[in-house]
């Protein structure tokens, strides 16, 4: 058999084995990381297709390579579906990552040294919203707003006050770890009052927005950026939606500005995901994500966990472990031993470092994809509580919960066809 036609398992046993192990890990653990999900078979088929083979620098109808007929078709389809799904005037679907989507917007709308105003990472914002260790904090003069010390909700009066002092050219609304509704209209009013552009980064809540389960930023922002692999459940990647007047500048900032050859197989997979997201089933899926998050939050609170803001309106919650004498890092490691995968996270006002943290950030997109509902969330809450409350002293508890996790995974299987 030629090198070209051998199946992976024969061609490269080392890689095949690692992938097989990872499949098993995904099948046999409870994945509660809110920025992850399980892509559908159709999305993965497009991502693993022959479209990986082609250079297609440029945009549909204007390519720098020959042989792009089907690449024009697939990218136009993805663009049209993205515009339809989000009722946007313009869409760019070439972005490799969410960070590059944000970078493209800054390059299109700002000059180096311009002022931007984003949410503090320590309060839930993202690196690419102006953090000093990121390009966004190095090229631009970044200023920040945060959440209120008491309610842990975004303090819109503070946003306005800081915006008036700073006079930013661009305000970034959006977060990686904020469990409540974001009031984009309020951000619009603030941006208008200080003459700033408004960008919403909906990387996390994009699925909820697409399904109408979170207020829509598209009508009130010049530009909206998002990833495609979190609640949207597509392939790894990102997109930008914007008003028509910004379309050309955004497109040029993406290519040739910061990217060259687009990942056409991933663009095809995005097109599939956008179609999936238009279905009634997807709308119901997003509603169930929220119901599940609220059920998990309730279960955790009943087990004496403190939730930042006292609950959730979206797909994630921030659990403040300060009353538990365990760091977020240790809690996440202990939970992983039991087969429950969460990520550690800073909580507002955290005294620990970003590597240790005092919190974890569970979310429900993944478990909801597996078909779990409120009853299972209640069980998962109890399992998390047992591990954190007793797991350090009693390894047997961790083993017992691991067994329960396996049973739950078997009852709600994933990727059975693989
Ligand atoms: C709000 C927000 N924006 C942007 C990103 C960046 O996405 P990527 O990891 O694809 O660069 C993330 C990722 O977690 C995010 O949460």
Q: Can you walk me through this structure?
A:
It is built from 16 helices and 15 strands. The chain is of the alpha/beta class and 418 residues long. It has two domains: 46-277, Aspartate Aminotransferase, domain 2 (3-Layer(aba) Sandwich); 280-411, Aspartate Aminotransferase, domain 1 (Alpha-Beta Complex). The strands form four sheets. It has a seven-stranded mixed sheet with strand order 4-10-9-8-7-5-6, with helices on both faces. A four-stranded antiparallel sheet has the order 11-12-15-14. Strand 8 (197-201), helix 9 and strand 9 form a beta-alpha-beta unit. It is globular. Bound molecules: pyridoxal-5'-phosphate. Pyridoxal-5'-phosphate is lined by residues 35, 97-99, 126, 128, 174-176, 201, 203-204, 227, 238.
Tally of separate helices: 16
Rg, rounded, reads 22 Å
CATH homologous superfamily of the largest domain, by name? Type I PLP-dependent aspartate aminotransferase-like (Major domain)
Shape: globular
**Terminal Cα span:** 23 Å
Share in β-strands: 5-15%
**How much helix is in the residues?**
40-55%
Spatial order of the strands forming the largest sheet? 4-10-9-8-7-5-6
Low-confidence stretches: none
CATH topology of the largest domain: Aspartate Aminotransferase, domain 2
- Average the pLDDT over all residues and give the rounded result: 97
- Overall number of structural domains: 2
CATH class of the largest domain: Alpha Beta
Reported CATH architecture of the largest domain = 3-Layer(aba) Sandwich
Question: What ligands are attached or bound here?
Answer: pyridoxal-5'-phosphate
Largest sheet: 7 strands, mixed
Structural class: alpha/beta
Number of strands: 15
Assembly context of the chains: single chain
């Amino acid at each position: 058999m030629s090198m070209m036609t051998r199946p992976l398992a024969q061609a490269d046993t080392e890689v095949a084995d690692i992938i097989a192990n990872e499949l098993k890990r995904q099948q046999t653990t409870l994945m509660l990381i809110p920025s992850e999900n399980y892509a559908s078979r159709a999305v993965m088929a497009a991502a693993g297709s022959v479209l990986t083979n082609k250079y297609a620098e440029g945009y549909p109808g204007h390519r720098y390579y020959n042989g792009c007929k089907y690449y024009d078709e697939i990218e136009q389809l993805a663009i049209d579906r993205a515009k339809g799904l989000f009722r946007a005037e313009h869409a760019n679907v070439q972005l490799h990552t969410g960070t590059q989507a944000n970078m493209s917007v800054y390059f299109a709308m700002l000059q180096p040294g311009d002022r931007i105003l984003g949410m503090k990472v320590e309060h839930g914002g993202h690196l690419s919203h102006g953090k000093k260790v990121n390009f966004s904090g190095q090229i631009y003069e970044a200023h920040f707003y945060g959440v209120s010390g008491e309610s842990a909700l975004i303090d819109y009066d503070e946003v306005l006050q800081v915006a008036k002092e700073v006079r930013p050219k661009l305000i970034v609304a959006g977060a990686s770890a904020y469990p409540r509704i974001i009031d984009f209209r309020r951000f619009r009013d603030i941006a208008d009052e200080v003459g700033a552009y408004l960008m919403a980064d909906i990387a996390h809540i994009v699925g909820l927005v697409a399904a109408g389960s979170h207020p829509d930023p598209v009508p009130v922002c010049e530009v909206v950026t998002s990833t495609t692999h979190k609640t949207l459940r597509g392939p790894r990647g990102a997109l930008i939606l914007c008003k028509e007047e910004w379309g050309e500048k955004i497109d040029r900032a993406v290519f040739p500005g910061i990217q060259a050859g687009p990942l056409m197989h991933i663009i095809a997979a995005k097109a599939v995901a956008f179609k999936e997201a238009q279905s009634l089933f997807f709308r119901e899926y997003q509603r169930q994500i929220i119901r599940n998050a609220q059920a998990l939050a309730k279960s955790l609170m009943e087990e004496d966990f403190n939730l930042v803001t006292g609950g959730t309106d979206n797909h994630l919650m921030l659990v403040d472990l300060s009353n538990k004498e365990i760091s977020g890092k240790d809690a996440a490691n202990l939970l992983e031993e039991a087969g429950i995968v969460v990520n550690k996270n800073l909580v507002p006002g955290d005294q620990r470092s970003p590597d240790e943290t005092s919190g974890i950030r569970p979310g429900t997109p993944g478990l909801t994809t597996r078909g779990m509902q409120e009853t299972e969330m209640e069980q998962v809450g109890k399992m998390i509580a047992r591990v954190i409350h007793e797991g350090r002293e009693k390894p047997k508890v961790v083993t017992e919960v691991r067994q329960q996790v396996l049973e739950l995974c078997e009852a709600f299987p994933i990727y059975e066809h693989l």
